[in-house]
Structure formats: structure tokens, C-alpha cells
Amino acid sequence: MCQLLGMNCNTPTDIVFSFTGFATRGGRTDEHKDGWGIAFFEGNGVRLFVDHQAAVASPIAELIKRYPIKSKNVIAHIRKATQGQVTLENCHPFVRECWGRYWVFAHNGDLKNFDPVLDGPYKPVGNTDSERAFCYLLQKMRRHFGEVLPALAELTAFLKQATAEIAGHGTFNMMLSNGEALFAHCSTKLHYIVRQYPFTTAKLSDEEVSVDFAEVTTPKDRVAVIVTEPLTTNESWTQFQPGELKVFVDGEVCTSCSASG
Amino acid sequence: MCQLLGMNCNTPTDIVFSFTGFATRGGRTDEHKDGWGIAFFEGNGVRLFVDHQAAVASPIAELIKRYPIKSKNVIAHIRKATQGQVTLENCHPFVRECWGRYWVFAHNGDLKNFDPVLDGPYKPVGNTDSERAFCYLLQKMRRHFGEVLPALAELTAFLKQATAEIAGHGTFNMMLSNGEALFAHCSTKLHYIVRQYPFTTAKLSDEEVSVDFAEVTTPKDRVAVIVTEPLTTNESWTQFQPGELKVFVDGEVCTSCSASG
């Protein structure tokens, strides 16, 4: 199994603090050492860093921990291989373009007997169940909506059905973002927190690191962090229900997006 | 205008030496400071690094110069914006998936009145003529060959026609790779060199750096480097003819691939 980390904000924010704790699980405080990756949206562009080395040993992970890339939507993944070899093409997140936008996807779990017909424009490059699920999701989305990006409520309603269908094949904790919204589906384990004014100090559980968010934010900032296992010891994380899909926009759960689901 | 750098090898090789000279042109020895990018194939996977900062000022470019990522196919680009803003989504190289493989593309030049109908699966995310040309090329390639990757000679014949058509709209120096072959088309300026046994010492023109390739290679290694302007002062680079498309495979010009063109 793997672990997932996502961030969705109302203002471009760096993920140095959360990624520092998360990356430590990639081979030191936990066993997820079969590669890792992180994707940052910046405007409509995406920076994707993937590495098949353990995150704790990777010079690129070291760079991410030191270089504060600011983004409104980030998805990261540390891998413990269940299906597919430890190669670069099997590292999450995966990126594809649809409707003139990049879509970023990462998955934690294991899908059994999941071999959908992929006869649309999206084909897996590697051999994981995860990339197969991503290609299937995009193919289905494109067939459902045609050639135009739908409104967020429609997209959410569609993704609720599509993720439930895929989750019928096994464990499907996943994150998907198009740079505007971050969708998170929970099969078994996912937690989130919304940090906003008044900000306090947070303490990582995996490293001896604390940060006083009041010192590095403005009162208007709002940041949602979504992760497999809570990253801090002194904050209150909300656990997802199994089968739940949440949509994060501007650093909070978008309730109106889900209403039509 | 921009500059292009490509490398195609018969064994995974690092590009630290060539990239060090090339990146210096990204704001120091030359004016290409509106972003840069580099894509490395590793097996079927791709590592893409893009940055809208000048290459000389970018911490990510610094990492590339120090971290020897080994690859058989690399494409890099430094940008001086002619069309499209200086944003991440406008940085080359661009990556798309087709037929279950990643395709990497970078362009130097300026296309006028180039506004093809893009009604297939590939749409530009940014607003450059270059990304438009890439999407058009993939759309055309997919329509021509259907759902299966063609043999290299067929693909080369197709690309000769398609690149000539696009070059009818302006300057179209470009590099394209699917991880096996590297295609380079010259409208105005492109040079290449094949380094093989017996290896000698090369001296960069943009930095006070030399390398004795005999010390870092085996007699079987062969490396083709393709670049807008020669990178070294003491080697003999071959200039492309205007309108020429060359295919590089295993570190040399593939003459059999071009025969059927």
C-alpha cells in the first residue's frame, strides 16, 4: 500500500512543512520506499517530480523540502509497490491532458480484476492498476461530457458514481485535481484538516519539526491538507467515511459542489 | 527565439556537461531567460523539469547540473518568449501520451497564422504556437496510423511530411522523442555531433569546463548531441540543412529510418 498527500488552498502556499513529515514515511518512519512523486499546479501549468528511489534518499525530495514552490493544488504519493515494478513510469502522480487542462491523479490501494476496455485516447504507459484506473476515469469522463469541461457540480456528481464503480474492484483511495478543485475519494483511510485564521502552531509526528502558521500566513489564507494518516500530533484531523468523495476548492470542502451529487 | 538541446544515446548517459553549457545561455551568455525545461526518458517513464525562472537563476537547473540523471533520450529548451506569456504552462518541453507512450516535444522558432483545427484528443494548455504545433502533430499522427505505434521508417516518412507542412508557417526547429528515437527538424539552425570511441576531451564554449570523455565512458558507448548552436570549441559539429529531418537512434543518425522517407 501507499500513502497520499494533497493540499488545496485559496492562495498559493508552499507544502514544505507537510511534505517534510510525509517524505519521512518514504523509507524511514514507514515502509513506503518504492518511489515517490509530487505534482504542483502553478496557474494552468504543472510541475511533476517523480523518482523511483525512496523519498528519504532522493536528492529531488531534498530539493522540494528546501525550495518553497507555491501552489494552490498539490498531490503527492509515496509508494510501496503492490502491482507493477519499481520503475519511473509506475510512480504516481500521473498526469494527462483533457479539455486543454492537465489532470493529476494518485491512488492508494489495490484493485482486483480491474481490466476495463481502454479504447479511447488514454492508455497506460506503465503497468499499475492505478494508471489503468486513471485512464479509465478520463475516458469515461470524456465520453460522458463530450468536448467541454463541465461545471464543478456536474463533474462531482459524475466522479461520485465513477469512483464508486472503480472502488467495487478493491481499495480506491485516490486524489484527482485539475488545478481548480481537488477531489479525494476514500475507500479505507483518508484524513483532512482545514487550517485558517486564527492560525496556531503545528507539530509533525514524523520529524522534530514545528511551525507557527500565524507567522507565515495572512488572516485571509485557508489551506486544506488531505492525507492518509494525520501528519501532526497536536491538531484535530477529520477522518473520511468509507465510500466518501470530497471536493476541495479554495482551501475548504466545497459543500455546494457536492449538493447535486 | 529559443534554443534547443537534445541527446540520444545507446546507453543511459548523463547530460551534466552539455546542460551546464546550455543552461548558461539561459540568461548569462545569452538572452534566453523566459523559462526553461528538460525532459529525461528513463525506460518508458519521463522526468520533466520546467521552470519559468531563467535557467541561470533556477534551483532546479542547479540540481540537474549536480545530479547525474542517466537517460538515453533527453530534450531541453531555454526560452525567449515570442508568443505566449512567461508562465509555467508555456515552458517547453511539452509531454503528451499517445499509444501508451510518452512523447516529448520542444520547438524553437515562430509560426505565423498557424491555427489548425484541433478537434482530436490533444488540446493546448498554454497559448504558444509551439504547443499548438505539438497537439496538431499528435492529432495528425494518430489519425494517420490509427491505434497502433507504426514502425520507425513509417513514422519518419510521416514526420517528414508533417514537419514540412508546419514549417510552411514559419520557423520550425523542433525535437520530438518517444524514448526510442529522437527526431530533429531544422528550419534555420541546428547542429549535431556523435561522440564515440576513441573519445577525446571536449571544452565548453559557455563555461570554463572541460571533460575527458575517455574517462567516463566505455568503448561501446555512443552519444549524439543535437543543439541550436555548438556547445564546444574544440569539436567538429555538423550543421543541419534547412528543411532536414534527422532521426537519431542508439546515439547515431539512423540512415535506414530515413531511407523510406
UniProtKB/TrEMBL annotation, chains A, B:
Residues 2-251 form the Glutamine amidotransferase type-2 domain. CDD domains: YafJ. InterPro entries: EgtC-like, GATase_2_dom, Ntn_hydrolases_N. Keywords: Glutamine amidotransferase. This is Class II glutamine amidotransferase. Pfam families: GATase_4. PANTHER family: GLUTAMINE AMIDOTRANSFERASE, GLUTAMINE AMIDOTRANSFERASE YAFJ-RELATED. Gene3D superfamilies: Glutamine Phosphoribosylpyrophosphate, subunit 1, domain 1 (3.60.20.10).
